[in-house]
């Protein structure tokens, strides 16, 4: 979920621009108020861990990106739907309804760092398959935030895609898409 807060909105709540980057009571209250509004207006509900990223726009305000991140796997012997979506071989897959959605995530991802991923077409959706090891830990939350903005974590493994899907770009999907559709 993306939230825009103007500097006027911050000022109306008695929050200084510099205070926005501190974890003070006013900022926490603002954050939880925004989440309540998001739930009421679009049904965004917090269920587990979240990642919050903030970007300043010098004259306009602050943009917050709030992303739900997958929980840690359950204790041994227990399984849930999220665990079934995770590939046990250290990769994850995001599905996209339209190719344009894939193009939209490629632009910001390709500027972060070189990352290996493959693009497949499977069951009327486009799937990007990522290897966990190619993403620096410091960028992991940002990558997930970008991917979840246009797609969803897919309940399929890379092995299934390789076996039953149509491979469009193997290993260098970001580069191929950026080169042809930028």
List the SSEs and their pairings:
Elements lengths: L1 E5 H6 L12 H18 L7 E8 L3 E8 L12 H5 L5 E6 L2 H14 L4 E6 L2 E7 L8 H11 L1 E2 L4 H7 L1 E4 L3 H9 L1
Antiparallel strand pairs: 1-3, 2-3, 4-6, 4-7, 5-6, 5-8
Mean pLDDT: 78
CATH topology of the largest domain: Alpha-Beta Plaits
The radius of gyration over CA amounts to 18 Å
Unreliable residue runs: 72-83
Q: Describe the largest sheet.
A: 5 strands, antiparallel
Strand order of the largest sheet: 7-4-6-5-8
Helix amount, in percent?
A: 25-40%
Give a count of the beta strands, DSSP E runs of length 2 or more: 8
Question: Secondary-structure element order, as H and E?
Answer: EHHEEHEHEEHEHEH
**Fraction of residues in β-strands:** 25-35%
Shape: elongated
Helix- and strand-based class?
alpha+beta
Distance, first to last CA: 24 Å
Q: What is the CATH C-level name of the largest domain?
A: Alpha Beta
Number of domains: 2
Indicate the CATH architecture of the largest domain: 2-Layer Sandwich
- Report the total helices: 7
